[in-house]
């Protein structure tokens, strides 16, 4: 039985999370939203039109006339869905409301991925935790089937109390991960420095809710409490301002005039990125010299 994507972070990363586990700040001042250019939406927000539920034996459901999608997990199985379309570059937005309460052992994965053994992939994974402890947001970038580029964060809000927007900007120059419009990570195109970059393989959007209690929470020390099942995550307001790939061709012409195609972080965005990473990043592979005794990956000299 299919249980989920099965990708895992290194044990050094998982164990490092819990050494610094912290409660949400009660007095945290709401972040100032970043002004982002208004982008035309290329994909209507209707899950019937845009996605297929691919596994879970009825545990994945499209509701409210296509405006809401839910995934659930119980002891027998999780569930998942994928986009009908493939994309080669774009700005992708999705609002998620994560599993509330004791979510330890569960993983909600939301990512773009190409097929095959030399795939490219752009990951958001939300690692559940005990009630009162923060979720861990795990990010990764795969090129040609190789990842090992984990950056992990705690969030500045409770992601189970309401919907929040998780976005990926993917253009030929960079990949930027956003949370509620705030950039949290940038992976630049450094092909001139010998670093592979995802730019040739179209990707679908995937999401799944699955059990990963062998590693997800405190390195597998905390197991899933099945008395809390079913666990449920919800999705809404999907937007894809993107180049759709179909029959070997892109919906975008060679003179792509979409603002996102050349979008980069301005000074405000760069400062915001640094602020988030300073205050909420809890693991960065580019700082883990013990993991890379032969030297850090090449991109670490350039990417934040």
TrEMBL record:
Residues 41-235 form the GH16 domain. Glycans are attached at residue 129. Keywords: Apoplast, Cell wall, Cell wall biogenesis/degradation, Disulfide bond, Glycoprotein, Glycosidase, Hydrolase, Secreted, Signal, Transferase. InterPro entries: Beta-glucanase-like, Beta-glucanase/XTH, Beta_glucanase, ConA-like_dom_sf, GH16_AS, XET_C, XTH. One of its GO terms (biological process) is cell wall biogenesis. GO terms for cellular component: apoplast. Catalyzes xyloglucan endohydrolysis (XEH) and/or endotransglycosylation (XET). Cleaves and religates xyloglucan polymers, an essential constituent of the primary cell wall, and thereby participates in cell wall construction of growing tissues. Belongs to the glycosyl hydrolase 16 family. This is Xyloglucan endotransglucosylase/hydrolase.
């Amino acid at each position: 039985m299919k249980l989920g994507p099965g990708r895992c972070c290194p044990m050094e990363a998982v164990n490092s999370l819990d050494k610094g586990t912290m409660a949400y700040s009660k007095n945290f001042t709401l972040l100032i939203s970043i002004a982002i250019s208004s982008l035309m939406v290329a994909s209507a927000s209707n899950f019937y039109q845009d996605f297929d539920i691919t596994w879970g034996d009825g545990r994945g459901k499209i509701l409210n006339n296509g405006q809401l999608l839910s995934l659930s997990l119980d002891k027998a199985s999780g569930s998942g869905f994928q986009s009908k379309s493939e994309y080669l570059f774009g700005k992708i937005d999705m609002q998620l409301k994560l599993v509330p309460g004791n979510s330890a052992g569960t993983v909600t994965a939301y990512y773009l991925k190409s097929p095959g053994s030399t795939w490219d992939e752009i990951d958001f994974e939300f690692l559940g935790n005990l009630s009162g402890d923060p979720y861990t947001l795990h990010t990764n970038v795969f090129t040609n089937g190789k990842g090992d580029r984990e950056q992990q964060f705690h969030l500045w809000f409770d992601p189970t109390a309401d919907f929040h927007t998780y976005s990926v900007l993917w253009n030929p120059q960079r990949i930027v991960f956003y949370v509620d419009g705030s950039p949290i990570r940038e992976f630049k195109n450094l092909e001139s420095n010998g670093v592979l970059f995802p730019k040739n393989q179209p990707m679908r959007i995937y999401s799944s809710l699955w059990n990963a209690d062998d590693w997800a929470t405190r390195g597998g020390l905390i197991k899933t409490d099945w008395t809390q099942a079913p666990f449920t995550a919800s999705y809404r307001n999907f937007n894809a301002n993107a180049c759709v790939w179909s029959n070997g061709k892109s919906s975008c012409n060679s003179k792509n005039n979409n603002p996102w195609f050349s979008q980069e972080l301005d000074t405000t965005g760069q400062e915001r990125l640094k602020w988030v990473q300073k205050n909420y990043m809890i693991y960065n592979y580019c700082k883990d010299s013990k993991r890379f005794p032969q030297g850090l990956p090449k991109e670490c000299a350039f990417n934040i």
